[in-house]
Specification:
It contains 13 helices and 7 strands. The chain has 456 residues and is an alpha/beta fold. Among the domains are: 89 residues, no CATH class; 100 residues, no CATH class. Strand 3 and strand 4 form a beta hairpin. The longest helix is centred in the first third of the chain and has 43 residues. The N and C termini lie far apart (116 Å).
Protein backbone atom coordinates (compact mmCIF):
# COMPACT_ATOMS: atom_id res chain seq x y z
CA UNK A 1 0.00 0.00 0.00
CA UNK A 2 2.79 2.39 0.90
CA UNK A 3 4.57 1.65 -2.41
CA UNK A 4 1.43 2.30 -4.43
CA UNK A 5 0.90 5.60 -2.58
CA UNK A 6 4.49 6.67 -3.24
CA UNK A 7 4.15 5.84 -6.93
CA UNK A 8 0.99 7.94 -7.12
CA UNK A 9 2.71 10.94 -5.53
CA UNK A 10 5.66 10.64 -7.91
CA UNK A 11 3.40 10.37 -10.96
CA UNK A 12 1.53 13.52 -9.84
CA UNK A 13 4.80 15.41 -9.35
CA UNK A 14 6.00 14.17 -12.76
CA UNK A 15 2.83 15.46 -14.41
CA UNK A 16 3.32 18.87 -12.81
CA UNK A 17 6.95 18.95 -13.92
CA UNK A 18 5.99 17.97 -17.47
CA UNK A 19 3.45 20.80 -17.58
CA UNK A 20 6.01 23.31 -16.26
CA UNK A 21 8.57 22.03 -18.77
CA UNK A 22 6.12 22.53 -21.63
CA UNK A 23 5.47 26.09 -20.47
CA UNK A 24 9.19 26.81 -20.14
CA UNK A 25 9.95 25.36 -23.59
CA UNK A 26 7.28 27.57 -25.12
CA UNK A 27 8.72 30.61 -23.35
CA UNK A 28 12.27 29.76 -24.51
CA UNK A 29 11.01 29.42 -28.09
CA UNK A 30 9.28 32.80 -27.84
CA UNK A 31 12.41 34.45 -26.44
CA UNK A 32 14.56 32.90 -29.17
CA UNK A 33 12.23 34.39 -31.79
CA UNK A 34 12.49 37.81 -30.11
CA UNK A 35 16.29 37.58 -29.98
CA UNK A 36 16.37 36.64 -33.68
CA UNK A 37 14.22 39.66 -34.56
CA UNK A 38 16.43 41.96 -32.47
CA UNK A 39 19.58 40.55 -34.06
CA UNK A 40 18.12 41.15 -37.52
CA UNK A 41 17.30 44.73 -36.55
CA UNK A 42 20.78 45.28 -35.18
CA UNK A 43 22.32 43.83 -38.32
CA UNK A 44 20.21 46.14 -40.45
CA UNK A 45 21.34 49.11 -38.37
CA UNK A 46 24.98 48.14 -38.28
CA UNK A 47 25.72 50.52 -41.14
CA UNK A 48 25.09 54.06 -39.97
CA UNK A 49 24.15 56.76 -42.43
CA UNK A 50 26.47 59.75 -42.59
CA UNK A 51 27.72 62.20 -45.19
CA UNK A 52 29.71 59.59 -47.13
CA UNK A 53 26.75 57.26 -47.85
CA UNK A 54 23.63 59.45 -47.65
CA UNK A 55 22.27 63.00 -47.90
CA UNK A 56 23.27 63.68 -44.28
CA UNK A 57 25.40 66.84 -44.11
CA UNK A 58 28.96 66.48 -42.74
CA UNK A 59 28.07 68.66 -39.75
CA UNK A 60 25.77 65.89 -38.45
CA UNK A 61 28.35 63.09 -38.66
CA UNK A 62 28.74 61.50 -35.22
CA UNK A 63 32.33 60.45 -35.86
CA UNK A 64 33.82 63.85 -36.61
CA UNK A 65 37.26 64.00 -38.19
CA UNK A 66 39.53 66.10 -36.00
CA UNK A 67 42.73 65.63 -37.97
CA UNK A 68 43.17 67.85 -40.98
CA UNK A 69 43.86 66.09 -44.25
CA UNK A 70 45.60 69.13 -45.71
CA UNK A 71 49.32 69.31 -46.09
CA UNK A 72 51.55 72.06 -44.76
CA UNK A 73 51.19 74.27 -47.83
CA UNK A 74 50.34 77.91 -47.30
CA UNK A 75 47.08 77.78 -49.24
CA UNK A 76 44.63 75.50 -50.92
CA UNK A 77 45.51 74.26 -54.39
CA UNK A 78 43.77 76.13 -57.17
CA UNK A 79 43.30 79.30 -55.11
CA UNK A 80 45.58 82.23 -55.93
CA UNK A 81 47.50 83.76 -53.05
CA UNK A 82 47.23 87.43 -52.07
CA UNK A 83 50.23 89.47 -51.00
CA UNK A 84 50.07 92.95 -49.50
CA UNK A 85 51.52 95.22 -52.17
CA UNK A 86 52.70 98.83 -52.10
CA UNK A 87 50.80 101.46 -54.10
CA UNK A 88 52.55 103.63 -56.65
CA UNK A 89 51.14 106.90 -55.22
CA UNK A 90 50.53 107.08 -51.47
CA UNK A 91 47.73 109.18 -49.97
CA UNK A 92 50.17 110.90 -47.67
CA UNK A 93 53.97 110.98 -47.52
CA UNK A 94 56.11 111.51 -44.44
CA UNK A 95 59.73 112.38 -45.24
CA UNK A 96 62.34 111.11 -42.82
CA UNK A 97 65.50 113.26 -42.91
CA UNK A 98 68.43 113.58 -40.53
CA UNK A 99 69.24 117.13 -39.40
CA UNK A 100 72.77 116.35 -38.16
CA UNK A 101 75.50 113.74 -38.58
CA UNK A 102 75.58 111.12 -35.83
CA UNK A 103 79.38 110.73 -36.23
CA UNK A 104 80.70 114.32 -36.15
CA UNK A 105 77.58 116.22 -35.09
CA UNK A 106 77.67 118.72 -37.98
CA UNK A 107 74.42 119.86 -39.59
CA UNK A 108 73.24 118.27 -42.85
CA UNK A 109 71.81 119.93 -45.98
CA UNK A 110 68.06 119.90 -46.72
CA UNK A 111 68.58 118.20 -50.08
CA UNK A 112 69.00 114.49 -49.42
CA UNK A 113 68.69 111.31 -51.50
CA UNK A 114 65.78 108.82 -51.07
CA UNK A 115 67.38 105.51 -50.08
CA UNK A 116 64.29 103.33 -49.53
CA UNK A 117 60.55 103.52 -48.85
CA UNK A 118 58.14 101.66 -46.62
CA UNK A 119 54.33 101.94 -46.54
CA UNK A 120 51.76 101.38 -43.80
CA UNK A 121 48.14 100.82 -44.85
CA UNK A 122 45.44 101.70 -42.35
CA UNK A 123 41.79 102.73 -42.19
CA UNK A 124 40.96 106.18 -40.82
CA UNK A 125 38.36 106.56 -38.06
CA UNK A 126 34.84 106.17 -39.44
CA UNK A 127 32.40 108.87 -38.41
CA UNK A 128 28.78 109.35 -39.49
CA UNK A 129 28.08 112.35 -41.72
CA UNK A 130 24.85 114.25 -41.07
CA UNK A 131 23.47 116.04 -44.11
CA UNK A 132 20.79 118.65 -43.40
CA UNK A 133 18.34 119.65 -46.12
CA UNK A 134 16.75 123.07 -45.61
CA UNK A 135 13.57 123.69 -47.50
CA UNK A 136 13.05 127.33 -48.50
CA UNK A 137 9.94 128.98 -49.78
CA UNK A 138 8.62 132.39 -50.75
CA UNK A 139 5.52 134.11 -52.09
CA UNK A 140 5.42 134.71 -55.82
CA UNK A 141 5.21 138.51 -56.42
CA UNK A 142 3.07 137.93 -59.52
CA UNK A 143 0.37 135.46 -58.42
CA UNK A 144 0.95 135.34 -54.63
CA UNK A 145 1.51 131.54 -54.74
CA UNK A 146 3.76 130.27 -51.95
CA UNK A 147 6.47 128.25 -53.73
CA UNK A 148 8.36 125.62 -51.70
CA UNK A 149 11.54 123.83 -52.73
CA UNK A 150 11.27 120.07 -53.18
CA UNK A 151 13.20 117.63 -50.98
CA UNK A 152 15.33 115.03 -52.81
CA UNK A 153 13.55 111.79 -53.60
CA UNK A 154 13.67 109.44 -50.62
CA UNK A 155 14.18 112.18 -48.03
CA UNK A 156 10.79 111.83 -46.35
CA UNK A 157 11.34 112.04 -42.56
CA UNK A 158 12.79 114.61 -40.17
CA UNK A 159 15.69 112.21 -39.51
CA UNK A 160 16.47 108.95 -41.30
CA UNK A 161 19.32 106.63 -42.26
CA UNK A 162 20.96 107.07 -45.64
CA UNK A 163 21.46 104.58 -48.46
CA UNK A 164 25.00 103.62 -47.43
CA UNK A 165 23.77 102.69 -43.94
CA UNK A 166 21.13 100.54 -45.63
CA UNK A 167 23.85 99.00 -47.80
CA UNK A 168 26.05 98.21 -44.80
CA UNK A 169 23.15 96.65 -42.89
CA UNK A 170 22.10 94.53 -45.88
CA UNK A 171 25.67 93.46 -46.61
CA UNK A 172 26.70 92.61 -43.04
CA UNK A 173 23.47 90.87 -42.07
CA UNK A 174 23.04 88.75 -45.20
CA UNK A 175 26.58 88.12 -46.46
CA UNK A 176 28.72 87.46 -43.32
CA UNK A 177 25.52 86.59 -41.33
CA UNK A 178 25.95 89.08 -38.46
CA UNK A 179 23.01 88.85 -36.00
CA UNK A 180 21.06 91.99 -35.10
CA UNK A 181 22.71 92.42 -31.69
CA UNK A 182 26.24 92.25 -33.10
CA UNK A 183 25.27 94.65 -35.87
CA UNK A 184 24.15 97.13 -33.23
CA UNK A 185 27.50 96.81 -31.45
CA UNK A 186 29.44 97.16 -34.69
CA UNK A 187 27.66 100.34 -35.72
CA UNK A 188 28.12 101.84 -32.26
CA UNK A 189 31.77 100.84 -31.71
CA UNK A 190 33.16 101.13 -35.24
CA UNK A 191 30.88 103.56 -37.08
CA UNK A 192 29.98 105.76 -34.11
CA UNK A 193 26.27 105.42 -34.89
CA UNK A 194 23.71 104.10 -32.41
CA UNK A 195 21.12 101.93 -34.10
CA UNK A 196 18.48 99.63 -32.57
CA UNK A 197 17.58 96.07 -33.52
CA UNK A 198 14.14 97.28 -34.60
CA UNK A 199 15.73 99.82 -36.92
CA UNK A 200 17.94 97.10 -38.42
CA UNK A 201 14.87 94.99 -39.13
CA UNK A 202 13.15 97.96 -40.79
CA UNK A 203 16.27 98.77 -42.83
CA UNK A 204 16.50 95.19 -44.08
CA UNK A 205 12.88 95.28 -45.18
CA UNK A 206 13.47 98.59 -46.95
CA UNK A 207 16.64 97.24 -48.58
CA UNK A 208 14.79 94.14 -49.78
CA UNK A 209 12.08 96.34 -51.26
CA UNK A 210 14.67 98.34 -53.19
CA UNK A 211 16.35 95.13 -54.37
CA UNK A 212 13.06 93.58 -55.51
CA UNK A 213 13.35 94.72 -59.17
CA UNK A 214 16.77 93.02 -59.42
CA UNK A 215 15.35 89.95 -57.67
CA UNK A 216 12.50 89.76 -60.17
CA UNK A 217 14.94 90.15 -63.06
CA UNK A 218 16.92 87.15 -61.74
CA UNK A 219 13.71 85.12 -61.70
CA UNK A 220 12.93 86.18 -65.28
CA UNK A 221 16.40 85.19 -66.51
CA UNK A 222 16.09 81.76 -64.89
CA UNK A 223 12.70 81.37 -66.57
CA UNK A 224 14.48 81.68 -69.93
CA UNK A 225 17.62 79.68 -68.98
CA UNK A 226 18.67 76.42 -70.61
CA UNK A 227 20.00 74.94 -67.35
CA UNK A 228 18.67 75.42 -63.80
CA UNK A 229 19.74 73.54 -60.67
CA UNK A 230 17.25 73.36 -57.83
CA UNK A 231 17.27 72.35 -54.17
CA UNK A 232 15.35 72.98 -50.96
CA UNK A 233 15.89 72.83 -47.21
CA UNK A 234 13.88 73.10 -44.03
CA UNK A 235 14.03 76.31 -42.00
CA UNK A 236 12.65 77.58 -38.73
CA UNK A 237 10.55 80.72 -38.95
CA UNK A 238 9.36 82.08 -35.61
CA UNK A 239 9.39 78.57 -34.13
CA UNK A 240 7.47 76.97 -37.01
CA UNK A 241 8.69 74.73 -39.80
CA UNK A 242 9.16 76.36 -43.19
CA UNK A 243 11.18 75.83 -46.38
CA UNK A 244 13.75 77.75 -48.37
CA UNK A 245 14.01 76.93 -52.08
CA UNK A 246 16.75 77.75 -54.56
CA UNK A 247 16.95 77.82 -58.34
CA UNK A 248 20.36 78.69 -59.79
CA UNK A 249 22.83 78.42 -62.65
CA UNK A 250 26.23 79.88 -63.53
CA UNK A 251 24.97 83.47 -63.60
CA UNK A 252 21.97 83.61 -61.28
CA UNK A 253 20.79 82.52 -57.83
CA UNK A 254 17.15 82.81 -56.77
CA UNK A 255 16.13 81.96 -53.19
CA UNK A 256 12.54 81.86 -52.00
CA UNK A 257 10.95 81.27 -48.60
CA UNK A 258 7.81 79.12 -48.62
CA UNK A 259 5.55 77.35 -46.10
CA UNK A 260 6.04 73.92 -47.70
CA UNK A 261 8.35 71.75 -49.79
CA UNK A 262 5.65 70.69 -52.23
CA UNK A 263 5.25 71.17 -55.96
CA UNK A 264 2.75 74.01 -55.43
CA UNK A 265 5.68 76.27 -54.51
CA UNK A 266 7.29 75.58 -57.89
CA UNK A 267 4.00 76.23 -59.69
CA UNK A 268 3.56 79.54 -57.85
CA UNK A 269 7.15 80.62 -58.60
CA UNK A 270 7.31 79.43 -62.20
CA UNK A 271 3.67 79.05 -63.41
CA UNK A 272 4.84 77.84 -66.84
CA UNK A 273 7.62 75.70 -65.42
CA UNK A 274 11.09 76.00 -66.92
CA UNK A 275 10.27 74.91 -70.47
CA UNK A 276 13.68 75.70 -72.00
CA UNK A 277 15.81 74.26 -69.21
CA UNK A 278 17.36 71.02 -68.10
CA UNK A 279 16.64 70.86 -64.37
CA UNK A 280 19.30 69.43 -62.05
CA UNK A 281 18.00 67.96 -58.79
CA UNK A 282 18.42 65.19 -56.22
CA UNK A 283 15.21 63.25 -57.06
CA UNK A 284 12.91 65.53 -55.04
CA UNK A 285 9.41 64.94 -56.40
CA UNK A 286 8.55 68.63 -56.76
CA UNK A 287 11.50 69.26 -59.09
CA UNK A 288 10.79 66.11 -61.09
CA UNK A 289 7.22 67.32 -61.67
CA UNK A 290 8.36 70.69 -63.02
CA UNK A 291 7.75 71.24 -66.72
CA UNK A 292 11.13 71.35 -68.45
CA UNK A 293 13.09 70.44 -71.56
CA UNK A 294 14.97 67.69 -69.70
CA UNK A 295 16.15 66.66 -66.23
CA UNK A 296 19.45 65.53 -64.72
CA UNK A 297 19.70 63.66 -61.43
CA UNK A 298 22.60 64.50 -59.13
CA UNK A 299 25.18 61.73 -59.51
CA UNK A 300 26.86 62.71 -56.23
CA UNK A 301 23.66 61.87 -54.35
CA UNK A 302 23.25 58.61 -56.23
CA UNK A 303 26.81 57.55 -55.50
CA UNK A 304 26.39 58.13 -51.76
CA UNK A 305 23.21 56.05 -51.74
CA UNK A 306 24.99 53.27 -53.62
CA UNK A 307 27.79 53.28 -51.03
CA UNK A 308 25.18 52.75 -48.31
CA UNK A 309 23.64 49.84 -50.25
CA UNK A 310 27.10 48.31 -50.67
CA UNK A 311 27.75 48.56 -46.94
CA UNK A 312 24.31 47.59 -45.62
CA UNK A 313 23.24 44.84 -48.04
CA UNK A 314 26.62 43.84 -49.53
CA UNK A 315 25.01 44.44 -52.91
CA UNK A 316 27.17 43.63 -55.95
CA UNK A 317 24.58 45.40 -58.08
CA UNK A 318 25.24 48.62 -56.14
CA UNK A 319 28.99 48.24 -56.77
CA UNK A 320 28.45 47.75 -60.50
CA UNK A 321 26.11 50.76 -60.65
CA UNK A 322 28.58 52.92 -58.74
CA UNK A 323 31.36 51.89 -61.13
CA UNK A 324 29.15 52.78 -64.09
CA UNK A 325 28.51 56.27 -62.74
CA UNK A 326 32.23 56.74 -62.15
CA UNK A 327 32.90 55.71 -65.75
CA UNK A 328 30.29 58.23 -66.88
CA UNK A 329 32.07 60.98 -64.94
CA UNK A 330 35.40 60.01 -66.50
CA UNK A 331 33.77 60.16 -69.92
CA UNK A 332 32.47 63.64 -69.10
CA UNK A 333 36.03 64.77 -68.27
CA UNK A 334 37.21 63.43 -71.63
CA UNK A 335 34.47 65.44 -73.31
CA UNK A 336 35.63 68.58 -71.50
CA UNK A 337 39.24 67.90 -72.46
CA UNK A 338 38.40 67.57 -76.13
CA UNK A 339 36.03 70.57 -75.95
CA UNK A 340 33.09 68.72 -77.43
CA UNK A 341 30.14 66.87 -75.91
CA UNK A 342 29.48 63.26 -76.83
CA UNK A 343 26.82 62.13 -79.25
CA UNK A 344 24.60 59.12 -78.33
CA UNK A 345 25.86 57.29 -81.42
CA UNK A 346 29.54 57.52 -80.42
CA UNK A 347 31.01 54.19 -79.34
CA UNK A 348 31.93 55.05 -75.74
CA UNK A 349 28.60 56.73 -75.03
CA UNK A 350 26.65 53.93 -76.74
CA UNK A 351 28.46 51.24 -74.72
CA UNK A 352 27.81 53.11 -71.47
CA UNK A 353 24.10 53.45 -72.27
CA UNK A 354 23.93 49.73 -73.09
CA UNK A 355 25.62 48.82 -69.78
CA UNK A 356 23.13 50.98 -67.92
CA UNK A 357 20.16 49.33 -69.63
CA UNK A 358 21.39 45.85 -68.74
CA UNK A 359 22.03 46.90 -65.15
CA UNK A 360 18.56 48.34 -64.69
CA UNK A 361 16.79 45.17 -65.82
CA UNK A 362 18.99 42.75 -63.85
CA UNK A 363 17.04 40.53 -61.45
CA UNK A 364 17.48 41.24 -57.73
CA UNK A 365 16.30 38.97 -54.91
CA UNK A 366 13.72 41.02 -52.97
CA UNK A 367 14.45 39.15 -49.73
CA UNK A 368 18.22 39.63 -49.87
CA UNK A 369 18.32 43.11 -51.40
CA UNK A 370 15.04 44.95 -50.62
CA UNK A 371 16.58 48.44 -50.42
CA UNK A 372 18.71 47.87 -53.52
CA UNK A 373 15.64 46.72 -55.44
CA UNK A 374 13.76 49.88 -54.44
CA UNK A 375 16.70 51.99 -55.61
CA UNK A 376 16.89 50.07 -58.90
CA UNK A 377 13.17 50.66 -59.56
CA UNK A 378 13.66 54.38 -58.92
CA UNK A 379 16.54 54.58 -61.42
CA UNK A 380 14.52 52.59 -63.95
CA UNK A 381 11.66 55.07 -63.54
CA UNK A 382 14.04 58.00 -64.07
CA UNK A 383 16.21 56.29 -66.67
CA UNK A 384 16.23 59.30 -69.02
CA UNK A 385 17.52 61.62 -66.27
CA UNK A 386 20.85 59.89 -65.61
CA UNK A 387 23.28 60.69 -68.45
CA UNK A 388 21.97 63.95 -69.92
CA UNK A 389 25.19 65.74 -68.90
CA UNK A 390 27.21 63.66 -71.38
CA UNK A 391 25.42 65.27 -74.31
CA UNK A 392 25.09 68.85 -73.07
CA UNK A 393 28.23 70.69 -71.85
CA UNK A 394 26.11 73.22 -69.94
CA UNK A 395 24.60 70.51 -67.72
CA UNK A 396 26.74 69.46 -64.71
CA UNK A 397 26.60 65.83 -63.49
CA UNK A 398 25.84 66.93 -59.93
CA UNK A 399 23.73 69.47 -58.10
CA UNK A 400 26.51 70.71 -55.84
CA UNK A 401 26.08 74.36 -56.84
CA UNK A 402 22.48 74.30 -55.59
CA UNK A 403 23.61 72.72 -52.34
CA UNK A 404 26.22 75.44 -51.86
CA UNK A 405 23.58 78.10 -52.48
CA UNK A 406 21.14 76.58 -50.00
CA UNK A 407 23.89 76.03 -47.40
CA UNK A 408 23.98 79.80 -46.81
CA UNK A 409 20.52 79.48 -45.27
CA UNK A 410 21.73 76.83 -42.82
CA UNK A 411 24.75 78.93 -41.85
CA UNK A 412 22.51 81.95 -41.24
CA UNK A 413 20.30 79.87 -38.96
CA UNK A 414 23.26 78.47 -37.05
CA UNK A 415 24.43 82.01 -36.34
CA UNK A 416 21.04 83.57 -35.56
CA UNK A 417 19.07 80.52 -34.41
CA UNK A 418 16.04 81.07 -36.63
CA UNK A 419 14.23 83.62 -38.72
CA UNK A 420 11.70 85.82 -36.98
CA UNK A 421 10.03 87.73 -39.80
CA UNK A 422 12.98 88.45 -42.09
CA UNK A 423 13.13 85.26 -44.17
CA UNK A 424 11.75 86.96 -47.29
CA UNK A 425 14.15 89.89 -46.99
CA UNK A 426 17.06 87.51 -46.52
CA UNK A 427 16.12 85.51 -49.62
CA UNK A 428 15.82 88.64 -51.77
CA UNK A 429 19.09 90.20 -50.63
CA UNK A 430 21.05 86.94 -50.63
CA UNK A 431 19.83 86.20 -54.17
CA UNK A 432 21.12 89.57 -55.34
CA UNK A 433 24.45 89.17 -53.50
CA UNK A 434 25.08 85.64 -54.81
CA UNK A 435 24.19 86.73 -58.35
CA UNK A 436 26.62 89.67 -58.13
CA UNK A 437 29.28 87.29 -56.83
CA UNK A 438 28.73 84.85 -59.70
CA UNK A 439 29.14 87.67 -62.20
CA UNK A 440 32.41 88.84 -60.59
CA UNK A 441 30.90 92.23 -59.71
CA UNK A 442 31.88 94.22 -56.62
CA UNK A 443 29.16 93.28 -54.17
CA UNK A 444 29.12 96.31 -51.87
CA UNK A 445 29.49 98.85 -54.70
CA UNK A 446 26.50 97.49 -56.60
CA UNK A 447 24.51 96.90 -53.42
CA UNK A 448 25.06 100.55 -52.46
CA UNK A 449 23.85 101.65 -55.89
CA UNK A 450 20.71 99.56 -55.44
CA UNK A 451 20.12 101.11 -52.00
CA UNK A 452 20.53 104.61 -53.47
CA UNK A 453 17.56 103.99 -55.77
CA UNK A 454 14.05 104.84 -54.52
CA UNK A 455 11.93 101.99 -53.17
CA UNK A 456 9.21 100.89 -55.58
Amino acid sequence: MQTAKTIGILEAENAVLRQENTILLARVSSLEEQVLVLLQRLEGKSVKKDSHNSHTPPSQDKARKTKSLRGKSGGQQGHPGHTLEMVSVADQVKELKSSYCQVCGDGLPEEQTVLSTRQVVDIPPIEPVYTEYRQYGCRCPTCAHIQKAVYPQGVSAPIQYGSRVEGYVAYLSVYPYLPYQRLCLLFKDVFGLSISEGSISNLLQRAAKKASPVYEQIQTELQQATYVGSDETGAKVNGKNAWIWVWQNLKNTFLKAAPSGGSQVVEDTFPNGLPKATIGSDRWAAQLKTTSQAKQLCLAHLQRELIFLEESEQSCWASHCKNLLQDALRLDKLAQARGKAYQPTEKKAYQLEHRLNRLLIRHLDPELYPATLTFQKSLLKHRDYLLVFLYDPEVPPDNNASERAIRNVKVKQKVSGQFKTGQDSFCILRSVIDTLKKRDLDIFTYLSQIMASPAT
